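The instructor's notes for this session suggest beginning with a concrete chain rather than abstract definitions. Hand out the sequence below and ask the class to guess, before any prediction is shown, which regions might be ordered.
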Amino acid sequence: MKEMTGRVALVTGAARNIGRAIALDLAAAGAAVVLVARTDRAGLDETAALIADAGGRAEVILADITNEDSVREMVARTKAVFGKLDILVNNAALRAEVEFQDITLAQWREVFAVNLEGAFLSSQAALSMLSESDAGAIVNIGGLTAYTGARNRAHVIASKAGLDGLTKALAQDLAPRGITVNLIAPGLIDTARAGRSAAEPEHHKHHATLLGRRGRPEEVAAMVRHLAGPNGRYITGQTIHVNGGLYLP
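After discussion, reveal the predicted structure:
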């Protein structure tokens, strides 16, 4: 039997890249997976099809994680379809590069709304079902630059640093409920970029990993699977860096 058979996971930002890899790996572990994105229905359907082709089960939901009502509806639908939730992966994020003096307050708030407030709203809405699980787990996906810094990313870095703090706070608050809360900070991962974040991040040009290569989304997903699985139950409140040795805390 696969280690997550009977579990239900919800992954935000599951239409492509790291989010898709996470969803596929959790499904490969036996979990039913709720796939969430704000607008990319086609990407979610592709992820769901890959899961179905491998014999897994997935549910597609379009939801705006910056909107409290939309998040509540997302969690309510999860309960209606699967009756439970064991694993929440807060992966959705915005990572646009803008020179500091050009960042508008609206841009600042938009990044915080997705990267930090989205994780807060999703975790809070999911809390009741996670508390009913005998292996509740929240895994937040952070970022390398929250620890190294980078140019033209003040709003992104501040929000991801806040996510690190939220992770530690929730680990304290939710431990009595048996819920583990951890953060994975990927660094230099090969991903396809689109929209406002389509360009290669500037800081990528100035970093090199000890292993001499970039990581794959599947290598981030493998850590999520471990932290959310039965062998990760004694790990909570931690930041795990998946970056090929680029940053050594």
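Then share the key points. Residues 180 and 233 are 7 Å apart (CA to CA). The chain has one domain: 8-240.
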